[in-house]
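Tutorial, part two.
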Amino acid sequence: MDWPDILNLVNAFALLAGVIFAAYQLIELRRQHRRDAVLGLVRSFQSGDFAAALRRVNSLPDGSDRAAIEHALGPDGWDQIFLVGLTWETLGALTFRREIDMETIDDFFSGAVTISWRKLHLFVEEDREGLGRETVWEWFQWLAERLQERELRSTPIPAHIAHREWSA
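Running the prediction step on this input gives:
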């Protein structure tokens, strides 16, 4: 093999190594982007306003309609209903678009979303009817139903039980 062939071979290996390195960097960049997005979401749910709103939604009877919500929460409770519902609406749309994977949503929010839906599904139906728009709260419902389907296929096991053998 002469020098030009050797140099061409070295050049080809260098180019291949560069392509592999660039592909690896892109994969890592995507992972980091998803991690940052999930952490940003989790931080946004750790606000006092959201925690208070979720606590009040959880205090409602299952299947609360407008009248039951008004009675239980008073007029200031509507903002909290909308804070929780629109948060789940956003998560539903992001999950559908695969910006956040369903497993992450399941780990962090499945209980909160499904309980919220259990409490608010009649209100959602009334709101859609009153507004004359079936797409109101569509992603909240979509997300709750997907999470309920997952739970039907596989009963949720609490992390402290499922991963008790885990070690650092």
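The mean pLDDT is 91. In part three we will examine how such features are distributed along the chain.
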